[in-house]
Structure formats: C-alpha cells, structure tokens
Specification:
Layout lengths: L8 E14 L2 E14 L3 E5 L6 H8 L7 E6 L2 E2 L5 H11 E4 L11 H11 L4 H14 L15 H13 L5 E5 L7 H16 L3 E5 L3 H4 L4 E6 L2 E2 L2
Parallel strand pairs: 3-8, 3-9, 6-7, 7-8
Antiparallel strand pairs: 1-2, 1-4, 4-5, 9-10
Helix pairs in contact: 3-4, 3-5
C-alpha cells in the first residue's frame, strides 16, 4: 500500500443513480451514490448479490452509463462525454478485469495480451518488448502460443489480468478477480494487485471475499444500491 498521502481525486460520483425502466415501473440498481476515490488508492467494494456492485464497477469502467447523477474521471465529466470520447478516455487510462476472463478465443495468449497496445497504436518493436516483459512477469512465457481453451481457469485469469495491465493503465477495475481460482492462485493475483498498487496504479475491486477485501486500504459496502459504509 502506498505510504504517501493520497492527493488527487481520480473518481468522483455525485448522486449517481441507475435503474431499469419497464413501462412506468423503475427497478433501482444504484441509488444516489456519492463517492470519491483518490489516485493511488486500493478500494474494495463489497455487498450481497444484487446489491449493485458489478453495475457500479461497469459504470466506473465506462462500460455502462448511469441514468442520473454526475461522474468525473480525472476531472473529466464522463456523464457529458460522447461514446467516442468515453472510449478514448477508457483505452488511455483504464484496465478492466472480468470475472469470466473475456479472452478472445481465436487469438493466442500472446495476441490477447497485445490487443490493448494495438488500440493504442504502439509500434511493433515496443509491443514485442512490452508483451515479453508481461509474459515474463506473469510466468506465462511457455503459454504464449496457446489458445484460451487450452488453458486452465487460473491461467486464463492471469492472461486477462496481463492484458488489463500491459498498457500501464492509471486504474484497474476488477470484478471478482479471483472468483474462479483456487486459493493459492487467488493469493498470487491479490499479491500482484498489491504490487501494482505500490507502483502507483489505483485499484478498485468488487469481491465477495473478506480476505481479498482486506488487501485494499478502504472497503465500501453496498446494500440494495445504497452505500452502507
């Protein structure tokens, strides 16, 4: 965990509300959330199933939008940006780790990890050295030519995280990052997040696991779409 005092507010939510409307009936998922997350924090979001954790994470990661309220990311008003502007902001600053890996089946491990760099137009030689570094760091050099279906769940999750961190995002949003892993793989992933956080990456994770939540420096609990603590 970072020892220096947190300075800049990276994420600021004001009265954020998300609902699904069916005719005149609104089903609320998130209600009036107001929250600040500072640069360099490691935040764990907890709460029972259906409390809105994943929805909140998807909105923070710009994969979904709120119906009401304001969302500022590094002082940019996300709630006012066009889809194209949001997409630019996302690919330049955000890494997302999904519970279900979301790897591209037709691509090898190497190609999956390289994908974010292609979006950022990183030159070929630089891409090669960045992917080589990450493969080495994650201990998956031997797997680089395999396809996702040839990997175990734990290996697929490692590749998903490698892909999320390769472009050195300012923040990583992780949705139940160890949900499909055994306990030793889970610890490896959490240790890796701790290391990335020490290096300056802000991390926001959704987790059911109290032991995973403890890796963070702050726990936010959601209940029925409200922030409980």
């Amino acid at each position: 965990m970072l020892s220096h005092s947190y300075m800049t507010i990276m994420i600021s939510l004001h009265n954020l509300t998300k609902y699904y409307a069916s005719g005149s009936i609104k089903t609320f998922v998130l209600r009036n959330l107001t929250l600040d997350i500072k640069q360099g924090e490691f935040v764990s979001i907890m709460g029972p199933s259906g409390s809105g954790k994943s929805t909140l994470l998807h909105i923070l990661g710009m994969l979904d939008e709120a119906n009401e309220g304001k969302y500022f990311f590094m002082e940019k008003p996300v709630h006012q940006l066009s889809e194209k502007q949001r997409s630019e902001l996302h690919k330049g600053s955000i890494g997302f780790v999904f519970q279900s890996y979301h790897l591209i089946d037709e691509l090898t491990v190497y190609e999956n990890i390289e994908t974010p760099l292609l979006y950022q137009n990183v030159k070929k030689d630089e891409r090669k050295s960045m992917v080589a570094d990450i493969l080495d760091r994650f201990n998956i050099v031997a797997k680089k030519d395999l396809f996702p279906h040839q990997l175990s769940g734990g290996q697929q999750q490692l590749v998903g995280i490698a892909r999320a961190v390769i472009a050195r995002p300012k923040v990583i949003f992780a949705d139940e990052p160890t949900g499909n892993l055994n306990s030793s793989q889970g610890r490896e992933i959490m240790d890796l997040f701790t290391q990335l956080n020490k290096e300056g990456t802000t991390i926001v994770q959704v987790t059911h696991s109290e032991s995973n939540a403890e890796y963070g420096n702050r726990i936010i609990t959601l209940f029925d779409g409200w922030i409980k603590s």
